[in-house]
Amino acid sequence: MGLEKCGIILGFLGFMFLSGLLSSMAQGNVHYYDFVLKETNFTKLCTTKSILTVNDSFPGPVIRVHKGDIVFVNVHNNGTYGVTIHWHGVKQPRNPWSDGPENITQCPIQPGSSFTQEVILSTEEGTIWWHAHSDWTRATVHGAFIILPANGTSYPFPDPDGEKTIVIGEWYKGDVMEIIEEALESGGEVNASDAFTINGQPGDLYHCSNETTSRFFVDYGKTYLFRIINSAMNEEQFFGIAQHNLTVVGSDAAYIKPISTTDYIMITPGQTMDVLVTTNQSPDFYYIASTPFIDGQAGFNNSTTTAILQYNGNYTPSSPIPFPSLPSYNNGTAAENFRKLLRSLASEDHPVNVPVNVTRSIYMTISVNQIYCENASCSGPDGNKLSASLNNISFQTPSIDVLQAYYKTLPHVFTKDFPDEPPDYFNFTADPVPDYTNFPTLGTKVIVLDYNESVEIVWQGTNVNSGENHPMHLHGFSFYVVGAGSGNFNNVTDPKTYNLIDPPEANTIGVPKNGWLAMRFFADNPGVWFMHCHLERHSSWGMSTVVIVKNGSTEATSILPPPKYMPPCS
């Protein structure tokens, strides 16, 4: 909405990275959005139910801005329970106050109240998204966040003839808040969804959905930029368009070397992909389809959501409509082969800044665990409760947000003793896994990093209870995925395989089932930042932690002061 905001950058000096952020911010405009949370009735799969929405829409409204802009979003909660909103993929330099995860950086926006969040964009360019970050409210509270190139610049590829946005989601016939509350109370598995959706519609393979299938109208001989977001709760997805090649040019608001030889993508919950599609087939209807990728043992929704790519013009559509050929639901090789194709553009205009000399190394195991129940009285494995952990610590969300406790030095909210490696007794390689590995420590333990440390985290998947691909997400940063492999990480031989030249830059990445993945970043964003699995059931079970980056030595390298109003903690 056009007014330049200068006050936000007064006094910003110092490190080159921050200077770069400020340069882009100084060029940007300021935008204002109103988000009204309220219950709205929707009819899908032959039944009508009330869901929590933003501005009566599912998915929610699209935020569309330019690189380096600043966005103020006034969130009014007219719903029935507290909610927070997170801007997934926005680094928020020095500004954790508006990042959004419940009881991590703020307490919920209570019914009948409002909270204005300041979203500070910096180096992000491409597609990200926003979503609720309270319990399971993000199932229906989410939307696209599109960041165009900065004014006076352009894409690193020819301008597309048009753009289309695809948001993959999940639909539950039941109340999602009741579903997760019942599962956590009983300790058993969470109910699977009843459908997947494309832009809120299940598609004509589901009951009562033929007339509402999403359609994307295109002209012959044009190239369209498809912005694809996986907002699903618990399933990674294979996605494709019948008889059309996909040229992937970006992921997680960062450009990549074009992948032009694929007819499918694999996209995890939390990830985004920017894909060019040239409409060079005979004018017709073509199915767009998304199916789950599952390599674990938990129950899942093995159905397919569809939309229609519909050419404009006069013709008789084919019958049946052409359908894309996608990998089978458990094809881990196809999923990993696609991930291996991702490489940063690493050009003069879009350079990489990969840490080379690591000053902090963290080895992080990922596990699904159990919590012991007396007399086998719970609904999980062996009568226990399902749990999850990082380095065998299952995160317990506090009642006061971690950011407030850290900023005000409040005691007894969290401890700074999260280990840089799993405990010695944690034997995740044994078969069967011993009981003392199955049962994690419970606690609100955080990782503390010095400002501007060069950090490497090696994620290690385990077979505790059962292994599967885990999409890990870090707030406040993007990171470089420098290596990955199967089996257990070898700290002598595996680093020799690292890509330090053009590794992909991401904010969410899938760690291979029972394999490892290494990521690097500079801890140059002071604040309190959540890190968690983006499979929502795993995060609910405790597969998360908090990263605190300490202030630097100057005001310009320290957390911004809090806004005048933050939602109170009850």
UniProtKB/TrEMBL annotation:
Record EC number: 1.10.3.2
Enzyme class: oxidoreductase
Protein location: Secreted, Extracellular space, Apoplast
Main location: secreted
Family, as annotated: Belongs to the multicopper oxidase family.
Protein's UniProt name: Laccase
Assigned keywords, A-Z: Apoplast, Copper, Glycoprotein, Lignin degradation, Metal-binding, Oxidoreductase, Repeat, Secreted, Signal
PROSITE patterns assigned to the protein according to its UniProt record, in alphabetical order: MULTICOPPER_OXIDASE2 (PS00080)
